[in-house]
Amino acid sequence: MKLLIVDDSAIIRKAIESFAKDFPVEIVGQATNGKEAVDLFTKLKPDIVTLDITMPEMDGLEALKQMLKINAAARIMIVSAISNNQVVIEALAAGAKHFLTKPFNETTLKAGLQKIMA
Question: What is the value of pTM for the model shown?
Fold first, then answer.
């Protein structure tokens, strides 16, 4: 399975990359904003995406919607510091498979990846 990591924080991208190494995934790309994410999603065709919400150029909710128009079967996990119930509901209603709140740790990220890969 191919994984695309999307977050404007290099620290978060590195943590996800490090924690995902125990999974049968190939990290095919990393993006720092929603627009770049949609472009890479189109080009790289990942099976799984970790996606932040608050990013420059295009937010994660808009990127989520565009990605699912391209591939409705994509497994997208939101990883965000925004834990407002309305945002969580909106992301899940738009098609996200899981919502993980920052700060996360290795255990919670791995549990989220396991859930969306099942």
Answer: 0.95
